[in-house]
Amino acid sequence: MTMDGPAPLLEIRNLRKSYVSPEGEASPVIDIAEFRLAAGEHVALRGGSGSGKTTLLNLIAGILVPDSGEIVVEGENVAALSESKRDALRARKIGYIFQTFNLLQGFTALENVALGMLFGGGADGARARHLLERVGLGDRMNYRPRQLSVGQQQRVAIARAVANRPKLVLADEPTGNLDARNAAEALDLIREVCRESGAALLIVSHDPDVLGRFERQVDLAAINRAAAGVAP
Q: Which domains does the chain have, with CATH numbers?
């Protein structure tokens, strides 16, 4: 994509993030000059331990604040927003599939999806039910996470991530806790649901089988000048 083309959905410019050690020394984690993602594009970001992959996704989502630089999502610079405005933007435009799913254990699958919608346009029970049916959990809506298999919990997390019709879905090692067959099925489902809603997808993984399913692959270590020796 050139600067003369349409504006990217996501654009990162001169992004830097460091953590301070207990000894008071700053340890660079992210130092990315430029990265772009087009609307509706699916990209796999290759990142092993120490590449800063989770930190990068958390910066894009507005969960973390960078030391400097810009993270522009559909024209809004996430890095320049207050915490409340970052939360609001994330609710409206960004879905996040966490590696550990982050489901609320005391709530049913249906409630987990519906509660995620409260931070956007408001809970929509009909849409929550539709999404759970779409991911094959029509008969498990009233089950709590502990009553579901790992693969089923992943499907709840996928439904929750797209519940607010986000423009961008972030996925942090979404198949890391699944066996090979369930991993392939989960990845196919994530991509299908994103295509159906027109969402762009940025997934980070170290799994060659996952990476091989994407036309565009980016080596995070190659674009992150702070990659060597940092925590994931």
A: 10-104+149-223 (3.40.50.300)
